[in-house]
Specification:
Length: 220
């Protein structure tokens, strides 16, 4: 589990495109899987084979580490459902290690399982912050509420305004300086992970669960 508090702004240092024997679902796309090498001196401290590191909000498994870098394999599903498929050598990425048991939950519960992608629509700078507007896929709008939590490229953020097909977030100077949201431009794609609690509540209600029971269980 992650918290959406980015530890380091890393960089892609190598991309190896891999072929495999996937069925025709990936037809027309020769890049069916990939291996990335990423620089992250902070997140690789103590990291070893099999550990997890979130890259732009996507939980990846470490293959190997060395000299402040690590490699991770990315399957076709991840490449097609996240922005990782567009990464090239030199791309900057947000990096976070999983939260240690007993650690502080500085952001909110983040699984590293991207629900979809959004597109930066507009940026409005102010004196001490910046408002960023992001377009939402139709199937995610119901999970986004004003003052609720959302993960954008692995960053835990509070929703300022939740529109019918967009949401806005307010970014402080630290977020602008230390994450990819400081360099994203209108038209750029970002990874989105909605609040997992909202998804579980929807599933339970769809199965006929009692609202009162859900509320009592949630506060236990």
């Amino acid at each position: 589990m992650f918290t959406g508090i980015v530890e380091e702004l890393g960089e892609v240092t190598a991309v190896e495109h891999l072929g495999d024997s996937l069925p025709a679902a990936a037809e027309g796309d020769p890049t069916r899987s990939a291996r990335f090498r990423l620089r992250g001196p902070v997140v690789t401290q103590g990291a070893k084979h099999g550990d997890s590191i979130a890259v732009n909000g996507v939980c990846l498994t470490v293959v190997d580490t060395g000299d402040g870098e690590f490699t991770a394999d990315v399957m076709a599903e991840t490449l097609s459902r996240s922005s990782l498929g567009a990464l090239v050598v030199g791309s900057r990425v947000n990096l976070e290690r999983p939260m240690a048991l007993g650690g502080r939950l500085g952001g909110h519960i983040v699984q590293g399982h991207v629900d979809g992608t959004g597109v930066v629509v507009d940026r409005k700078p102010a004196e001490h912050w910046e408002i960023v507007k992001i377009a939402l896929p139709d199937d995610l709008t119901r999970y986004v509420v004003e003052k609720g939590s959302i993960t954008v490229d692995g960053i835990s953020l509070t929703v300022v305004d939740a529109g019918p097909d967009y949401f806005t977030v307010s970014l402080i100077p630290t977020t602008l300086a230390l994450t990819t949201l400081g360099i994203k431009e209108p038209g750029d794609t970002v990874n989105l992970e909605v609040d997992v609690i909202a998804k579980y509540v929807e599933r339970l209600l769809g199965a006929g669960a009692d609202v009162g029971t859900i509320a009592r269980e949630a506060v236990k």
